[in-house]
Amino acid sequence: MPRQTPVRRRTRQLRVGDVEVGGDAPVSVQTMTTTNTADVDATLQQIAEVTAAGCDIVRVAVPSQNDADALPTIAAKSPIPVIADIHFQPRYIFQAIDAGCAAVRVNPGNIKKFDDKVAEIAAAATAAGVPVRIGVNAGSIDPRLLAKHGAATPEALVESALWECSLFEQYGFRDIKIAVKHHDPLLVVAANRLLAERCDYPLHLGVTEAGPAFQGAIKSAVAFGILLLEGIGDTIRVSLSAPPVEQVKAGSHILACLGLRPRKLEIVSCPGCGRLQVDIHHLAARVEAAFEGFPHPLRVAVMGCVVNGPGEAREADIGVSSGNGKGQIFVRGKAVATVPESQIVDRLVEEALRLAEDAPTP
Ligand code: SF4
């Protein structure tokens, strides 16, 4: 059955370095480094890792002068655009812009007290062609609006974000993308729907403090899945209490499931049941590890018995139907061999490499 790609909401488009965000640009995947930003080597190493995993844009925290001082080298050497994440310190914002950062994350409400630096930031960002990301979550709603709404409701998040935008808009600055985040995925859905009705800025989707990898990936998949299928969302970050590479992989998987990013290698494996004739969890994990980083978009089926095994294995590019210490190997619908269980993984890789020889590397 042909997949239906979601019809995207029309937004303004902006450029974060060489990555377009909004409009008809592909939905991009972001993450944030966890290194001490001032440790340039460690930060660049982590950026290289997330880039290899498919990250489009990376954000680095800038809580100190040493971090701000590291930005020129990081921005120059990073293979993907760098966003400087800054709270409270206007001078770091100017440094980030001068350093060649592709965007800054700043909430003007935080810096309004500094003699109205907002106008200067708007002017500097305009001159450098640097967009600003405004982000509001449950903990950073403007106190006035929190009091007005009584809680971190979707309305409170949206009103707070749009108020932050208005502080820039009064100076004619509209090169903005917005994130409204919450730990509750359904609240994230409601807030972004509301925001999508009220403005045409590109939206950065995120479920904040989503939790450990398993829980956080599910929460993000639920929220992003609903919103992206409605065409809402222009860039995403899966926030997990897990390494940034895992966040990028989760984000890329979510987009691939929605038909918004080409699929990479896909492993179809059965969950196992009382008919199992192999340790399917272990076998699937070994197959996943063996195919880590495989660049061709193959579907590999790993099945645990002969009931559904041959059918699924035939449907995939490469598959195995396991049982009684053996594995029947299928390639593009044809049974090509039966191998001992200990040779299943190697044989699958061998067949995949053979198929890959016939297809150019994507
Ligand atoms: Fe159970 Fe076999 Fe289906 Fe796996 S393929 S879930 S073992 S019936």
TrEMBL record:
Cofactor: [4Fe-4S] cluster
GO MF assignments: 4 iron, 4 sulfur cluster binding; 4-hydroxy-3-methylbut-2-en-1-yl diphosphate synthase activity (ferredoxin); 4-hydroxy-3-methylbut-2-enyl-diphosphate synthase activity (flavodoxin); iron ion binding
Signal peptide per UniProt: none
IspG C-terminal domain segment(s): 266-351
Entry keywords, A to Z: 4Fe-4S, Iron, Iron-sulfur, Isoprene biosynthesis, Metal-binding, Oxidoreductase
Residues bound to [4Fe-4S] cluster: 270, 273, 305, 312
Free-text function comment from the UniProt entry: Converts 2C-methyl-D-erythritol 2,4-cyclodiphosphate (ME-2,4cPP) into 1-hydroxy-2-methyl-2-(E)-butenyl 4-diphosphate.
Record-given protein name: 4-hydroxy-3-methylbut-2-en-1-yl diphosphate synthase (flavodoxin)
Species, as recorded: Streptomyces alboflavus
Upper lineage: Bacteria, Bacillati, Actinomycetota, Actinomycetes, Kitasatosporales
